[in-house]
Specification:
The protein is α+β, with helices and mostly antiparallel strands. Helix content is 37%, strand content 11%. It contains four helices and four strands, in the order ββαβααβα. A two-stranded antiparallel sheet has the order 1-2. Strands 3-4 form a two-stranded parallel sheet. The longest helix is centred in the N-terminal third of the chain and has 26 residues, at 25-50.
Length: 140
């Protein structure tokens, strides 16, 4: 999910099967960070070119629920477990090092897109949809 600004609702959401077979959960989440960063940067550049805002000073912030993937993105070195990751995905690490992007850990229960992917009890579902910015048609 991509948000525009701190208090706005969702402006983009994508859910798709990865076209690549990852050998670990960390690699799968790292690839997801790559795809998310590409979409976020594209939308950032689109908004800037529309001249709606002068420029966006903050780096793009991505939340990931896999600690290993977050550590791998933020560390400047590789490990033997990550040697199988295709070189094109390493742009994520370069974007983090150049402050164009930041990747932070978030607990699975705090991810507001969870109701779009999993069944939840009604109370938890309503809490999540409120955070996304979903409102009843009666409230409009």
């Amino acid at each position: 999910m991509v948000f525009l600004g701190h208090y706005s609702g969702v402006i983009s959401r994508r859910s798709a099967k990865q076209t690549i077979i990852a050998s670990s959960t960390m690699a799968a989440k790292f690839i997801a960070c790559y795809e998310t960063s590409n979409q976020g940067i594209l939308l950032n550049n689109f908004v800037i070119r529309l001249r709606i805002v002068e420029g966006i000073q903050r780096s793009l912030k991505i939340y990931c629920d896999n600690k290993s993937a977050v550590l791998y993105c933020n560390k400047n070195r590789s490990s033997t477990k990550s040697k199988h990751i295709d070189i094109k995905f390493l742009i994520v690490k370069e974007r983090v090092q150049s402050d164009q992007l930041s990747i932070e850990h978030i607990g699975t229960n705090s991810i507001i897109a969870v109701p779009l992917t999993k069944g939840l009890p009604p109370k938890v579902y309503h809490e999540h949809t409120t955070h996304i910015g979903v409102v009843s048609i009666d409230e409009i």
